[in-house]
Write a structure and sequence with these properties.
The protein is α/β, with parallel strands linked by helices. It has helices at residues 51-70, 73-89, 91-102, 106-125, 165-176, 190-203, 217-226, 239-249, 274-286, 306-319, 338-353, 409-416, 432-441, 478-482, and strands at residues 5-6, 13-15, 17-19, 22-24, 31-35, 42-47, 134-135, 142-150, 153-157, 180-184, 210-212, 230-236, 255-259, 264-268, 296-302, 358-361, 380-383, 400-406, 421-422, 424-428, 446-449, 465-466, 484-492. The protein has 14 helices and 23 strands. Strand 7 (134-135) and strand 8 form a beta hairpin.
Amino acid sequence: MSQPMSQKKNQPEIIRNFIGGKWLPADGGKTFPSYNPATGEVVGHAPVSTVRDVEKAVEAAHAAFPAWRQTPAPKRGEILFKAAEILVTRKEELARLLTQEMGKVLAEARGDIQEAIDMAYYMAAEGRRSFGQTVPSELANKFMMTVRSPLGVAACITPWNFPVAIPSWKVFPALILGNTVVLKPASDTPVVAAKFVEILVEAGVPAGVLNFLTGPGGALGKTLCTHPKVALVSFTGSTDVGKGINAMCAPSLKRISMEMGGKNAILVMADADLDLAVDGIVWSAFGTSGQRCTAASRIIVERGIYPALTSKLLARTRKLRLGNGLDPKTEVGPVINRSQLQKIHEYVQIGQKEDRAKLLCGGQIEAKGPLAKGCFYQPTLFGDVRPEMRIAQEEIFGPVTALIPVRDFDEAIRVANGTRYGLSMSIFSKDVNKAFRAMRDLESGLVYVNAGTIGAEVQVPFGGMKETGNGHRDAGQSSLDTFSEWKSLFVDFSGRLQRAQID
């Protein structure tokens, strides 16, 4: 078998596509660089895949599907279990590479890999636990049951902010159910994504069952969405791109699973533990440099405690240390690239121009000293923000959050629900009645009480309401529904024709 990547000493890695069990260059032979956002250095070179490469990958997956779906599910589970074991042994190596290519601090990179480990163990067990149901029939001498059936070829299109965890959310449930996969990772993190695929190959995934290609999202994504042999598209990314995918997939009626944008809120009530709330806000707003779909970009605060909370939060935010994610002293790493850096700054300028919003700290690209070579944005806090302002409505995807004062709990709920998104929200309160009302009334797929908006676990569904998603979920048992069809089976052993609802 050809090698996944090559590397001369102290030189960037050169990775390849993986199609039909072989590591191959792109059809046209072109490559593109992947950069370290903290230093600007090249981490590796990846194939600029063409439409022809996509077609080869889909054909390979389609050809491998019949044998893979007939492989006993426990055997498929053993492969995923082995992948989990390999991930455990290579966790530190992968985490360091992830930090170099994506930028998040090393502790968070280890968490990214750990999430893939958790998902591998969880889905491996589904090889012996993908339960259906047996149910009684209304007719005598008749047996009924349900089973899951795989869909076929699943196209998994994944983002750069969790370049190992999110592919694991999609690839592992797809494989355990007997689907074959074409994985298209984000172009900002192709090297660590190739390592993820390499581990599954080492674990024993047969040729053609998992295929991997890199390159421009537009042309490749369009081909995956419109290819007649792709049964499912699972996408994580922006809402605008998701709407385009939805339109491309609609004519063929293929299944689409989409997890998209968020404008997540933390509600801080007058009776909250303010120190705990500040801990949750700082982690949720500035963890991963605000580059999570669950990041808290709105902090909705009762007016009575607004000055005290603002003072505490401002003091903590000003102390956050920017730097290379490999430095153990770093608390906030770089954003992913120059384009995103500029987009964040443009939103901050919009916020400064919006009536009465106050820039309390940050608001600048870090352009001096050793950090100037990277893509660093100062942790930024706005105060006195009104709910209708653009910085309170639109996803920024950076280390920027907005403090929104409200009169009371009821207004806090209305403001929290007043965006087109509904992914993750939280409330800090000691009042159990308010906590339960928030759990009921917040229009959000994830709701936390006395915790931040980030930190979901693999055994529960992940996804959101409104323009955050289209009803499907990643992770947990719900992801099995995404990657399978329910089939109802009827066995009549009466020896005569029986008619349900009539006889």
